[in-house]
Amino acid sequence: MTNQPLQKVDHSALKANQLTIILLNILAFVFNLPFLAALVAAVMGLGSLLKLPGFILLYRYFYKPLGLLKPDILDDNPEPHRFAQFLGFLFMAAGSAALFTGAGALGWGLVWLVVALAALNAFGGFCVGCAVYYWLGILKVSGFTKTAPAGIFPGMKPKAR
Amino acid sequence: MDVLTRAGIALLIMFGGFGLSLLYQYWARLRTPDLFPDLGTLRPGASTLVYFTTPTCAPCKTLQRPAIQQVSQLLGDALQVLEIDAAQRPEVARRWGVLSVPTTFVIDPRGKVRHVNNGVARAEQLLIQLQRG
């Protein structure tokens, strides 16, 4: 495991992503729109491919210009956040597949799980996917090379310096 | 299920989550009396600021400590500051739920934890928290 230098990560972009995921998933559940859940899954998957928060454009052209979120740039590792989004994508993809195959309870259960994890991150500052990434690193799983920033519990949001 | 039922379920889940978060906060507050043996004797009638730091924490030195000194000078004997090195006393930091430094706890004169600041708390912020009690 290597302890490489931290990069600048805009946590507001991550928060915008999480808030949008929460909102769209709740709307999908309330209005019974499995395709909306599938769309969220697709955007998260695309974001994982592009190594960006899936709803980054909404942050750039909606949340930020309207002053709903201000940049919150912290020294952090971007990789755990990408991994967390990828985990979210897997849950959302499985949930969407379940919804389209008639397993409603399982599908919406997975969707709500993603909502809960996103809410924990957005409102509690704890990223479960990032914690999983760091623990996999501790277990020396190949590809999980980054360690949590010094003095920060794995998965917790770093503090401003 | 119609839209209203689904909206009701969504609201229930959201309130449930909110309730759980409140329960967690309540539980965290209940734990606090057990934490005081770590502090030794608190000065009667004074508010207490418990400040967790480590020797390698740069913002602790450059921002947090000056802010605490400023508040301490302003409040004089009405404030007791207890500094805990989380690196030297990790078990105390763990009991207090400290995940990062600097972390400051504002304790009122009756011994109740009133505020927790994860990260740098500026002097003005600490003063407001101490005055609110």
SSE string of chain A, helices as H and strands as E = EHHHEHHH
Kindly report the spatial arrangement of strands forming the biggest sheet of chain A.
Answer: 1-2
Output the radius of gyration of chain A. 16 Å
Average pLDDT score of chain B: 86
CATH superfamily of chain B: Glutaredoxin
In quaternary terms, these chains amount to: heterodimer
Biggest pleated sheet of chain A:
2 strands, antiparallel
Structure description:
The complex is a heterodimer of chains A (161) and B (133). Chain A is mostly helical and 161 residues long. In chain A, 62% of the residues lie in helices and 5% in strands. Chain A has six helices and two strands, in the order E-H-H-H-E-H-H-H. Chain A has a two-stranded antiparallel ribbon. The mean pLDDT of chain A is 92. Chain B has helices spanning 3-31, 58-75, 90-95, 123-132; strands at residues 47-53, 79-85, 103-107, 113-118. In chain B, strands 2-1-3-4 form a four-stranded mixed beta sheet. The model of chain B has no long low-confidence stretch (mean pLDDT 86). The chains are: A mainly alpha (161), B alpha+beta (133). The interface between A and B is medium-sized, with 20 and 22 residues.
Topology readout:
The complex is a heterodimer of chains A (161) and B (133).
Chain A: E1 7-10, H1 11-30, H2 34-50, H3 56-63, E2 73-76, H4 78-100, H5 104-124, H6 128-138
Antiparallel strand pairs in A: 1-2
Helix pairs in contact in A: 1-2, 1-3, 1-5, 2-4, 4-5, 4-6
Chain B: H1 3-31, E1 47-53, H2 58-75, E2 79-85, H3 90-95, E3 103-107, E4 113-118, H4 123-132
Helix pairs in contact in B: 2-4
